[in-house]
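Work Package 4 report. The design task specified in the project plan requires that, given a folded chain encoded as structure tokens, an amino acid be chosen for each position. We show below one input record used in the internal validation round.
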């Protein structure tokens, strides 16, 4: 759906309720700016952020295990990077 909105005298954009759907009073949103576009999303709750972090941590731990299982040298990663920089 496309709808034209305009700024008020103070430069604020007011979004009509039909653009947001059913929302509770004082709902919070984040606004991302990409070039001339604005992306408006509901703010993530701490529970959602915790879930995202837990998923990321699980993937990170799996990658750590995969690298550890494939590591076939006595040198550490730091030693290998140092050698590459020489």
């Amino acid at each position: 759906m496309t709808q034209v909105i305009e700024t008020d005298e103070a430069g604020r954009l007011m979004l009509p309720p039909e653009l947001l759907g059913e929302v509770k009073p004082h709902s919070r949103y984040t606004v991302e700016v990409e070039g001339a576009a604005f992306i408006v999303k509901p703010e993530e709750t701490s529970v959602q952020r915790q879930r995202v972090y837990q998923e990321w941590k699980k993937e990170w731990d799996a990658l750590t295990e995969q690298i550890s299982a494939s590591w076939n040298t006595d040198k550490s990663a730091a030693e290998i990077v140092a050698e590459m920089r020489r």
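The chain has three helices and two strands. Validation will be extended to a larger panel in the next phase.
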